[in-house]
């Protein structure tokens, strides 16, 4: 059965395959037998994940979830921690020492005087929120040590009444909270390489995160200052030494721009803009100016340093986009992903994140056979506009080769291109380093993870 997607394109989605003999012989005890196989190479109907109690243990042969034998009817023994008092609660708690490997990767750990980046370990996280200590960072000058009592934000230029705000004054305005993803325009740049560069999901897609941000809407402050009708843009400037400046259309200020003070309930992390940053939901990371100290309303874009080469996209024909604000619809599989090994054939949960700078995620399709057939993943609630949406898909790995892919659609009907479709328009780049510089930006095509018969996973192109 083939269908037409809601962009009106004929495609091979919703292909239903007759189970092979091997598939038909899969372990009994699963609520959803192979009648619910929804696409090739073992994808199982997403209803299998919606609280239906798939008998996972029955689908595993050994190890976790294995049946107890009668000889081990009382298998629980007291380890030392069950026999002695625990430790003292700490005023500010860090994760368990057993989670020490759940950490960002740093591009420039010695803080040499050039850009520092920290990448989110997506393969070790779940849900839709990135904890503050694991939020990605791009810092051109290193995170400054700002005293909030001395920090000021000014709004001036083409306004009726220029104003200067202390942090205390800002906190008196009506606040709002929203969950929003943030992504560096340079995220996923390794995929511009003509050959699939080997790196895990953290190395390839680690410059995107999602947090709950609380603060004051910029429009609330602009109601106080008033806007001169000539003002079409504003220039935002940071207080760190590079004084990063970006030009933003006033329309975004009046839409959903936020002067953010809190990140996941606590004050912004120093690397993410403490004590105040600009949040432009859905717009490329670079425009979300941290350590915000100035908003100047102007008639035309400033064409500042960051608007010259780095953030104007060069196209294969030599033309360039002057601005490329939007982070377009995208998804990637976080589990399983490179660096993990599938230990044995059986039931697995494919999971990942999808997001769009345009709005909500409408659907995510998953393939286990390199895009020959697809099935619709379960979207975990809440599905919020311009936020990470967690998707999940049940998969029975038969021990053979597989290529796992995800492809997202947003509510406006935009969809993630395949890599072939993407490079036809945007081109490829030779000599792309897996981590580091971003010679080209805004890569949003489908990512492929190849699973080999040993259960090892690598980055692949199809
Ligand atoms: N003041 C200031 N703002 C900045 C930057 C910076 O170095 N200084 N880096 C920009 C870039 S390139 C990105 S991708 C985002 C990253 O935000 P984060 O570090 O909070 O994840 O911040 C942007 N805002
Ligand atoms: Mo960035």
Describe the SSE topology.
Blueprint: E1 3-4, E2 10-11, H1 21-24, E3 37-39, E4 43-44, H2 56-59, E5 105-106, E6 116-119, E7 137-139, E8 153-157, E9 163-165, H3 167-170, E10 175-183, H4 201-205, E11 208-217, H5 218-225, E12 233-238, E13 245-249, H6 250-255, E14 258-263, E15 266-267, E16 277-279, E17 292-298, E18 330-335, E19 346-355, E20 361-367, E21 375-376, E22 378-379, E23 389-397, E24 402-410, H7 419-426, E25 448-451, E26 457-460
Parallel strand pairs: 8-17
Antiparallel strand pairs: 1-2, 3-4, 4-23, 5-6, 6-7, 8-9, 10-11, 11-14, 12-13, 12-17, 14-15, 14-16, 18-19, 19-23, 20-21, 20-24, 22-23, 24-25, 25-26
Can you walk through the features of this model?
The strands form six sheets. Strands 3, 4, 18, 19, 22 and 23 form a six-stranded antiparallel β-sheet that branches. A five-stranded mixed β-sheet has the order 9-8-17-12-13. Strands 10, 11, 14, 15 and 16 form a five-stranded antiparallel β-sheet that branches. The protein has two domains: 3-30 and 326-460, Sandwich (Immunoglobulin-like); 139-321, Sulfite Oxidase, Chain A, domain 2. With 462 residues, the chain is mainly beta. The chain has helices at residues 21-24, 56-59, 167-170, 201-205, 218-225, 250-255, 419-426, and strands at residues 3-4, 10-11, 37-39, 43-44, 105-106, 116-119, 137-139, 153-157, 163-165, 175-183, 208-217, 233-238, 245-249, 258-263, 266-267, 277-279, 292-298, 330-335, 346-355, 361-367, 375-376, 378-379, 389-397, 402-410, 448-451, 457-460. The chain is built from seven helices and 26 strands. Molybdenum atom binds next to loops. The site of molybdenum atom has 6 residues, from loops.
